[in-house]
């Protein structure tokens, strides 16, 4: 009877076959025998199940593989990206394998929670990790030919957190097809139940939403909200939450960025399920499903954002630190608090871009119709680009590929192909050969700029180049170039510390220094920048302000090159310095980082403070695991430091001072600044280091190679190339009233000044706005009518 009625049921044939087996015909002995065997086997299975679950749980005889232990359950390992913060709390970058930043339950919109439960696990609050009703329905839907998942949110979390199917957790039976699937599922069931006993429902939801993959390199709800909608998890609307939850089924297929139609359909399915569960009213659902997809899509990359050069250098340091201290920068969720100020960094990057774009136009015009790579006589260097190409990794790759066949290599490096190149007007899509692109990039001028607090050593802005994507070499710390006259303050500081005063005088006249090098006697006769000797008797104050080479060379000879090197080292110059007569004119290479750090001692009462870029590192829970305190040491006595500030101010106050280009910037409203320009002998390096009461900033500008430069000092000197970066930067900083950097005077010395230092040259100032130049406190002073050239102080004789 039942069998005959079964024929009339409108269900799949697979379901009918199963029911025929269970509903035996009383007259069919064979079916009764099969039925008895079925129930007997079923009872045996029921009796065997407890032993099976126990065996899987304890990994009996290592047959099933390990399950997470108590510690793993209580402290699940979530791969979290480490974050970099500025000193004012702005996140400027991440390091990650999976771009994930965990958030608390309270920081997640209820819209997300409701959408997730309605779609993935309707009985989430009613089960203990396993939903038997869902599992039975999976069997039923499978029989009907409809593949549906029955895993609870907790079970899915187990797969995300503990990787129970990975090779090291398989066990012996884990390699047997079909059986391994049953074991994997069993382990997930057992772990899900344990997880429900360990965490609250809120904690499970939070863990799940922090670990799940939303696609587009967005792991966790915080990163997903930012990536797809440019918002935070607590501000997600109902339709936005539906889009993100819809992604969980298949992040690529339902991507709103790449498959908007499928994403829209999936979103509306989620909204419908939310309506069925009572989270949305039918009228609201009808309205929401008609809303089009609106994205604010932006995939975050590890080097996106501000301070790219700074973060590149920081990356090397942090990787080394993490390795030494047992952390993984890319997975441990560290919070690294840097010294960088987000606004100052922004102003530094703007200042660099504005000046370098303007300067590049001049450079193109200056070399129009000619190649900028020239020798000491101004002649184009033959084979320059070819020789550089041969030193590239790409060329070495081609050598290996074509087995040093020159014809094949040349054909490849001269073959045009589509590429995107950098320009100051924006990236350009073009067609070039590798050789052409190499030549194109060699025309660009480069720069490095850094600003720091001289009192605590904290670096506030760091711009290592013109564009990190195309030029990753950092010109703040990695690059070392000849500093030219920006090295002269070390000569004057050493002299003042050893008996001289700013008002002592020397004559600007030719000098020839005889010295010995490698057992060979040599001579050196420096020229002034303008190739003219005035034969005037100048105070040391004016000589440094005008950057007179002959007087600096004479002073270096008087105090000895060795003493100049010693004082430079005391003030933080760690690069190799040659003990030669030309040292005072900046003949040895240094970095922007070293030079700016050294000048900070002048502002900080003679105390050199190590430049630092990190204040502290916290773990993912906010515990401080390392604080960074800069090294400090006395480099100069306080009187010398104060006198050197007056010398640096002289570059603005003395007639002919090389820093007076700063007057074109709005920087002198009851404010004091000092600084020193520098230019290498062939104009390949332009420098400026400026000091204020709160900040010291330094810039370098030049070609990638020393043979690439302006032909004249009028265009290539530091006052024209590097100084404007500092001027623009300080102008922007001062105009931002939210910053704790205000105009003002240098602090008065805390010690008695025993040496004469106020000796300005009495010449009518060229500027009409003298009242704004507060440093010009012109007073009547006695000047000898018969100045005599000073000799070395007694302490040096």
Question: What does this protein look like?
Answer:
- This protein is α+β, with helices and mostly antiparallel strands and 797 residues long.
- The protein is built from 28 helices and 18 strands.
- It has three domains: 2-58, no CATH class; 70-288, Penicillin binding protein transpeptidase fold, CATH 1.10.3810.10; 447-796, Beta-lactamase (3-Layer(aba) Sandwich), CATH 3.40.710.
- Helices cover 40% and strands 11% of the residues.
- Mean pLDDT is 85; it is low at 765-797.
- A hairpin with a 4-residue loop joins strand 17 (685-691) and strand 18.
What secondary-structure arrangement, pairings included, does this model have?
Elements: H1 2-7, H2 13-22, H3 29-58, H4 70-74, E1 82-85, E2 91-95, H5 110-120, H6 132-143, H7 153-162, H8 179-198, H9 201-211, H10 221-229, H11 238-247, H12 260-276, H13 282-288, H14 308-325, E3 335-338, H15 342-366, H16 384-389, H17 393-401, H18 406-413, E4 417-421, E5 428-432, H19 434-442, E6 445-452, E7 459-463, H20 488-497, E8 505-507, E9 513-517, E10 520-524, E11 537-539, H21 540-546, H22 549-559, H23 561-570, H24 592-603, E12 607-609, E13 614-618, E14 624-627, E15 632-634, H25 638-653, E16 674-679, E17 685-691, E18 696-703, H26 713-716, H27 718-721, H28 723-735
Parallel strand pairs: 1-3
Antiparallel strand pairs: 1-2, 3-13, 4-5, 6-7, 6-18, 8-11, 9-10, 12-15, 13-14, 16-17, 17-18
């Amino acid at each position: 009877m039942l069998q005959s009625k079964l024929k009339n049921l409108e269900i799949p044939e697979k379901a009918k076959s199963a029911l025929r087996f269970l509903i035996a015909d009383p007259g069919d002995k064979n079916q009764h025998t099969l039925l008895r065997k079925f129930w007997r086997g079923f009872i045996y299975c029921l009796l065997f199940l407890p032993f099976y679950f126990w065996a899987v749980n304890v990994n009996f005889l290592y047959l099933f593989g390990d399950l997470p232990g108590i510690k793993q359950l209580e402290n699940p390992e979530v791969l979290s990206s480490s974050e970099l913060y500025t000193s004012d709390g702005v996140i400027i970058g991440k390091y990650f394998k999976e771009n994930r930043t965990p958030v608390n339950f309270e920081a997640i919109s209820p819209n997300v929670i409701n959408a997730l439960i309605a779609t993935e696990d309707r009985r989430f609050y009613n089960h203990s990790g396993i939903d038997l009703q869902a599992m039975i329905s999976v069997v039923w839907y499978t029989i009907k030919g409809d593949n549906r998942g029955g895993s609870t949110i907790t079970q899915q979390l187990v797969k995300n957190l503990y990787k129970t199917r990975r090779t090291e957790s398989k066990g012996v039976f884990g390699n047997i097809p079909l059986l391994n699937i049953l074991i994997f599922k069993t382990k997930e069931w057992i772990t899900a139940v344990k997880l429900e006993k360990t965490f609250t429902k809120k904690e499970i939801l939070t863990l799940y939403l922090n670990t799940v993959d939303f696609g587009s390199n967005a792991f966790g709800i915080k990163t997903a909200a930012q990536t797809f909608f440019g918002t935070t998890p607590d501000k997600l609307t109902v339709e936005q939450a539906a889009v993100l939850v819809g992604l969980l089924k298949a992040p690529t297929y339902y991507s709103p960025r790449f498959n908007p139609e499928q994403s829209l359909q999936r979103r509306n399915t989620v909204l419908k399920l939310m309506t069925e569960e009572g989270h949305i009213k039918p009228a609201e659902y009808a309205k929401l499903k008609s809303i089009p997809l609106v994205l604010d899509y932006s995939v975050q990359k590890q080097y996106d954002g501000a301070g790219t050069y700074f973060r590149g250098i920081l990356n090397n340091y942090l990787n080394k630190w993490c390795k030494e201290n047992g952390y993984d920068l890319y997975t441990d969720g560290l919070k690294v608090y840097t010294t960088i100020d987000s606004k100052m960094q922004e102003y530094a990057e703007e200042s660099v871009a504005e000046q370098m774009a303007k300067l590049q136009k001049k450079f193109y015009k200056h070399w129009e119709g000619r190649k900028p790579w020239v020798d000491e006589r101004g002649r184009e260097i033959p084979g320059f680009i070819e020789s550089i190409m041969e030193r590239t990794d790409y060329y070495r790759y081609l050598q290996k590929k074509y087995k040093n066949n020159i014809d094949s290599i040349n054909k490849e490096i001269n073959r045009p192909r589509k590429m995107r190149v950098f320009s100051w007007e924006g990236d350009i899509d073009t067609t070039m050969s590798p050789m052409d692109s190499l030549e194109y990039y060699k025309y660009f001028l480069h720069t490095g700029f850094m600003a720091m607090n001289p009192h605590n050593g904290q670096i506030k802005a760091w711009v290592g180049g013109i564009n990190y994507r195309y030029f990753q070499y950092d010109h703040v710390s990695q690059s070392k170039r000849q500093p030219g006259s920006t090295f002269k303050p070390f000569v004057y500081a050493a002299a003042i510390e050893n008996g001289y005063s700013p008002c002592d005088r020397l004559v600007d006249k030719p000098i020839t220094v005889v010295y010995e090098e490698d057992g060979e006697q040599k001579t050196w006769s420096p020229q002034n920048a303008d190739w003219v000797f005035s034969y005037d008797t100048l105070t040391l104050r004016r000589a440094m302000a005008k950057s007179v080479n002959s007087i600096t060379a004479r002073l270096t000879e008087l105090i000895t090159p060795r003493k100049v090197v010693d004082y430079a080292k005391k003030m933080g110059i760690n690069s190799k310095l040659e003990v030669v007569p030309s040292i005072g004119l900046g003949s040895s290479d240094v970095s922007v980082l070293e030079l700016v750090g050294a000048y900070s001692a002048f502002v900080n009462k003679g105390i050199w403070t190590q430049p630092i870029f990190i204040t502290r590192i916290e773990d993912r829970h906010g515990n401080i695991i390392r604080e960074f305190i800069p090294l400090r040491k006395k480099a100069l006595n306080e009187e010398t430091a104060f006198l050197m500030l007056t010398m640096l101010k002289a570059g603005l106050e003395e007639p002919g001072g090389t820093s007076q280009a700063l007057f074109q910037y709005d920087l002198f409203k009851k404010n004091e600044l000092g600084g020193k320009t520098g230019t290498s002998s062939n104009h390949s390096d332009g420098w400026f280091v400026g000091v204020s009461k709160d900040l010291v900033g330094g810039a370098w500008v030049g070609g990638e190679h020393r043979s690439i430069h302006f032909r004249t000092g009028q265009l290539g000197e530091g006052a024209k190339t590097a100084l404007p970066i500092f001027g623009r930067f300080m102008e922007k900083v001062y105009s931002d009233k939210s910053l704790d950097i205000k105009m003002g005077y240098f602090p008065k010395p805390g010690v008695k000044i025993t040496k004469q230092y106020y000796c300005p040259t009495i010449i009518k100032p060229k500027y009409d706005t003298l009242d704004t130049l507060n440093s010009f406190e012109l007073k009547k002073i006695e000047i000898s009518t018969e100045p005599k050239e000073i000799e070395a102080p007694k302490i040096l004789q």
